[in-house]
Design brief:
alpha+beta, Deoxyribonuclease I, Chain A, four-stranded mixed β-sheet, three-stranded antiparallel β-sheet
């Protein structure tokens, strides 16, 4: 990025559809511990973190969110709140059978939030089922 000379870590995630593989991802992320350097995790985690993360389709169950909640409880990172939109994925079916989910997320550690307290994430629809994310460090 032009004019940017901070060192930070970015982990780009593409979460599996398999619950066991997502558990492996949670365990790998937990193994990093709490990093003191600026740290950002973003991407399609393909996991539910709360009961409101899906609109349409089958209801989110406690078993769907447990691993994600356990990982967040470790306190390594916090989820960055998004601007304007909540759901980041759609099956693009016609109304009545359309499903919206929040699958794409941005997580950051306290050091990054301290350095950039006004960081923002905005999602916009692209050509695919997922929205793309624009991060603004202000």
């Amino acid at each position: 990025m032009v004019g940017f000379n901070e060192e930070f870590f970015i982990i780009d995630v593409y979460g599996s559809n398999s619950l066991n593989e997502r558990k492996d991802l949670s365990n790998k992320l937990a193994s990093f511990g709490t990093l003191q350097k600026l740290w950002l995790i973003l991407g399609d985690v393909n996991a539910m973190f709360s009961y409101k993360d899906r609109c349409g389709g089958s209801q989110v169950k406690a078993s769907n969110i447990q691993d994600a909640q356990d990982w967040l409880a470790l306190g390594q990172v916090d989820e960055l709140k998004t601007i304007r939109v909540f759901y980041t994925w759609s099956n693009k079916h016609e109304e009545g059978v359309r499903i919206y989910s929040k699958l794409d997320r941005v997580f950051l550690n306290e050091a990054l939030l301290d350095q950039y307290p006004n960081i923002k994430a905005r999602y916009k629809w692209g050509d695919f089922n997922h929205r793309y994310c624009i991060l603004k460090l202000v």
